[in-house]
Amino acid sequence: MLTREYMLNWAMIAALLFVPLAAWTLDEPFIITLATKAAILALAGVGLNIALGQGGLISLGHAAFFGIGGYAMGILAAHAQNYEPLFGWPFLFEGSNQMPLIWLVAVAASASAALVIGALSLRTSGVYFIMITLAFGQMLYYFAISWSAYGGEDGLSIWVRNEFPGLNTLDPIQFFAIAYVILCLALFFAARLARSPFGLALAAARQNEDRVEAVGLTPFTLRLTAFVISGAITGLAGALFADLNRFVSPTMLSWHTSGEIMIFVILGGVGRLYGPVAGAALYILLEHLLGGISDYWQIFLGLLLLLIVLFARGGLIGALAGREKAHG
Amino acid sequence: MTYILVLEQILNGLQFGVMLFLMAAGLTLVFGVMGLINLAHGSLYMVGAFAAAAVAGWTGSFLLALIASLAAAAAAGALMELVVIRRLYRRDHLDQVLATFALILIFSEGTRWLFGSFPLFLDVPPYLSGPVTLPGGIEYPLYRLAIILIGLAIAAGLFLLIARTRIGIQIRAGEADREMIAALGVDISKLYTLVFALGAALAGLAGALVGAIQSVQVGMGEPVLILAFVVIVIGGIGSIKGALAGALLVGMTDTLGGVFLPRLFTLFMEPASAASAGASLASMLIYILMAGVLLVRPSGLYGGSA
Predict the structure, then answer these.
(1) In chain B, how many domains are there?
(2) Which of B71, B131, B204, B231 has a CB 3.0–4.6 Å from the CB of B139, allowing a cystine?
(3) With contact defined as beta carbons under 8 Å apart, do B73 and B47 qualify?
(4) Each residue of B251-289: pLDDT tens digit?
(5) Which residues of chain A are within 8 Å of residue B290 when distances are taken between CB atoms?
(6) For residue B94, which residues of chain A lie inside 8 Å, CB to CB?
């Protein structure tokens, strides 16, 4: 059905493609980089939105997965550039500068972390869940700071961006293409997930836990699965983000990052599939425009966020596309 | 490793725990009474520290600085409650998290704009500086001892306030049944503002007291805020007793772990890697403690139902 939201989604995803293409023809690599950043941050938001929007799980610790993805890239690439194997036993495991392998490791590592953190945190709910995810995220942050083998507080720099077979990743538009395609795949996946039997059960668990239990499903398992998928996607975004900057540091794990990923979701509109795309694009735009005017641009970001939360709960998409169709 | 070192570290842990209690008490009261999760509590801690540093700079009096920290944080807290927080009580936790995260951005950047990015320094007054000799021959900084005593006195005062006074009864009634005490004629919105300002004042005082040991800078409240969350998760949300137990447990674990774990590791590792492995593990210790408590008691040591 051609609702306004549906058309808006297509317009946004087309704009995110069109702007860097226009910048490419005009030879403005900086704008391409900004668009790449928006696409990657949107991907992180799409990940969080599976837990937050679909599962109703308010995780304030998604920086953990974002950072683990980043460190997966940093560690593999650092070993590859120094020609040191990560470990030689029980099998030889060498570093790598191949993006597909790095993504695989990033997804596996962040999914495993999400499994452990989720299994512990989902024993609780409500405010406890918020605080515990926050605390686990912060635990990894302090761990990264004290882990001097991989740069500690200074982080890890990579000299050359990692490679993708058949593409020149150092060319901004080609790296943008990679991020954009992954974002589209993730959006497609999230949309399919929401309409799958699993997604419907997850939404039901958010709306009425008792009924879900009564029909024989286990809310805990549903939520944990959603949390793991969510963490894995955010981890993939972390690996891409680290590759964009060729740098990874504990900042990626800090709780401000968790808050920012959540802001992308909220600026766009909670529970909207394309909310993170709108939110991340708006965030980058604000950072770029306001950041040029004042060093203290986050005051305005704070005010804007406050106004959206207090008075315009649908976020950007809600304002443009009207109210969400009624549910729950 | 002598017993003096151990006792010294236990006192340090106690001092840290008492400071965490001042932070956690406000958070847990606000959650218990209003059902609100306030991420901006760390900003109130920062406001207190900056107010103290500014007043100490103008007047040179540490006592006035402490009073200023209480007053400024309470005022900032009351303002925050009146303008923003009271719109959030009926909202879900997600809205509360976002709105108070927005407040952090506003407070942090606003403070950076007013005071600049460089840390300020708050000096320990002469009558509280220098070491004292405790029974048993332990030399311990007088200022840290004073912090422990102030913190314990405030903890005792808070328990009395809640157990014995009219306000305390209203606070406990508010935790139990909001509608009922409103129906009994208590001005609930005034009570909420009061509770929020009280929690803010405690956070501000903690900021000022710690500011004299560390530096006063933007963002100083956030690490403490997250530790305070760990404290109330361990103690049980809404419970002052839990906050005290959790704060002391976290303070001790963090301090003793940071000192003794690297030493412990030297028993079976070479010194350099023992130091770094010990430090890494020590930095994670309180979160491991939290995970352990959650496995056994998901709603905290003194928590009712989550």
Answers:
(1) 1
(2) B131
(3) yes
(4) 999 999 888 888 888 887 777 777 777 877 888 889 889
(5) 132, 135
(6) 52, 58, 270
DSSP for A33-62, written as a single string: HHHHHHHHHHHHHHHHHIIIIIT----S-T
Residue A301 in contact with partner chain B when CB distance is under 8 A: yes
The reply to whether B264 falls in a domain is no
C-alpha A99/C-alpha A241 separation (Å) is: 12
The amino acid that residue B30 corresponds to is V
- Provide the residue range defining the domain that includes B101: 3-219
Domain positions in chain A are: 4-321
- Judged by CB atoms closer than 8 Å, whether chains meet at B279 and A146 is answered as yes
Name the residue with tokens 């699965």. Answer: A225
Please tell me the distance from the alpha carbon of residue B70 to that of residue B90, in angstroms, as a whole number: 28
Supply the mean pLDDT for chain A. Answer: 88
Instruction: Assess if residue B46 is contained within a domain.
Output: yes
Q: How far apart are CA A113 and CA A124, in angstroms?
A: 18
Which ipTM did the prediction report?
0.85
Q: Using CB atoms and an 8 Å cut-off, which of residues 210-229 of chain B contact chain A?
A: 222, 226, 229
State yes or no: cis peptide before A250, omega within 30 of 0: no
Residue A119 near chain B (CB below 8 Å): no
The DSSP bridge partners found for residue A98 are A163
Residues of A in contact with B106 (CB under 8 A): 299, 302-303, 306
CA distance B200 to chain A (A): 19
B11 part of a folded domain: yes
User: Residues A77-86: pLDDT tens digits?
Assistant: 988 888 788 7
Closest residue in A to B31 (Cα–Cα):
A127
Q: Over 90: is that where the pLDDT of A237 sits? A: yes
Q: CA-CA distance, B242 to B207, in Å (whole number)?
A: 21
Report helix, strand and coil shares of chain A as percent, to nearest 5. Answer: 75, 5, 20
The phi, psi pair for B194, rounded to 5°, reads: -65, -50
**Any residues with CB less than 8 A from the CB of B197 and at least 6 apart, and which?**
B74, B75, B77, B78, B81
Name the closest residue on chain A to residue B222, using Cα atoms. Answer: A255
- Confirm whether B160 is domain-assigned: yes
Helices (H), chain B: 3-34, 41-59, 62-83, 93-115, 142-164, 166-176, 178-183, 188-211, 221-235, 240-265, 271-296
pTM of the model: 0.88
